[in-house]
Amino acid sequence: MAILLNEDTRVLCQGMTGWAGSHHTAVMIEYGTRVVAGVTPGKGGRFHLGLPVFDTVTDAMAATKANASMIFVPPDNAAKAMIEAIEAEMPLIVAITERVPVLDMLRVRDALKGSSTILVGPNSQGILAPGICKMGVMATGSERRGGIGVISRSASLTSEITQQITLAGLGQSTTVGVGGDAVHGLGMRQCFEMFLKDPQTEGIVLIGEIGGSEEEDLADFIRETRPSIPVVALIVGIHAPRERRMGHAGALNLKGRGEADAKIKALAAAGVVIASSPHLVGETIRDCLARKAA
Question: What span, in angstroms and rounded, lies between the C-alpha atoms of 121 and 282?
């Protein structure tokens, strides 16, 4: 069973009338996602892509019963859009915007305190429940419904690993891009806990990278809880130079902190099976499941 998304997910798109919003919303609709509205301040009352456009998230939710928001808003106004959705009590927000200013994201984090909203991102490729719902900008075509949950900090590697899992004869329940920026919403540990609560999740794949301490925090949780399902991890950035940002705003290798080797050691010590190379992840999770079934 998928997490975060289901057949009842009704999506509104903040920033739908811009180029990126228009393009990716159309692709989401083609995939089968139930997009019900757009939100662009000053353009309320119009129609775009055959959908009503509203000035505010509150108005859109009241008129369409939307329960998820996809944010296609540029960095300078992305935090404002997130906070608007949080204050409207939107249950789920997915933000793909990259490099939202850190101070802006600290305001978003404050707005999340005490709320029931789950924020995925920013700088997330989104969430994909194969055959059910797509909220994001990820490529599709190689996904397949199944029991493997994928938690990732990397967009490109998520597409690669999704294909590997499919070619290994397995499938994905949900792929979740937690976001590559230094300050974001849903973390790897919280996402992992969601998969553990799903009785149909048969295994979990983690895709981590340098920077931050999310992988180490998750390793502590896994060591304490000792989940009964296989967990496979790929950590990239072993040879990344120090003190240089590598693509993502959060992928920064500092001496003694956020290094790939430390993350690998922590996860391995917690019982996680480490894939030695990106091209072996699908094979590794398949073999882990086979050993468990033997």
Answer: 25
Return the CATH fold of 11-120: Rossmann fold (3.40.50)
pLDDT tens sequence across 81-110: 999 999 999 999 999 999 999 999 999 999
Known catalytic residue: 24? no
- How far apart CA 141 and CA 236 sit, in angstroms, is 25
Query: How far apart are alpha carbons 188 and 177 in whole angstroms?
Result: 9
- Pairing mode, strands 11-14 and 133-136: unpaired
- Exposure on the CB side of residue 95, measured as CA atoms within 13 A: 35
**The residue to which tokens 């999506």 are assigned:** 11
Q: What is the DSSP-derived secondary structure letter of residue 294?
A: -
Q: Up-side HSE of residue 184: CA atoms within 13 Å toward CB?
A: 33
CATH 3.40.50.261 domain range(s) in the chain: 126-293
Q: Out of 23, 184, 239, 248, pick the active-site residue.
A: 248
Q: Give 147-165 pLDDT, tens digit per residue.
A: 999 999 998 999 999 999 9
Question: Which CATH class, in words, describes the domain spanning 126-293?
Answer: alpha beta
DSSP 73: -
Q: What's the pTM?
A: 0.94
H or E element that contains 145: strand 145-152
User: In the sheet that 51-54 helps form, which strands lie side by side, from edge to edge?
Assistant: 47-48, 51-54, 35-39, 11-14, 68-71, 92-95, 118-120
Residue 142, token pair as written in the block? 């190689």
Give helix then strand counts, H and E, for the chain: 9, 14
Q: How far is CA 195 from CA 20, 27, 110, 176, 200, in A?
A: 30, 27, 26, 11, 9
The residues of the chain that CATH labels 3.40.50.720 are 11-120
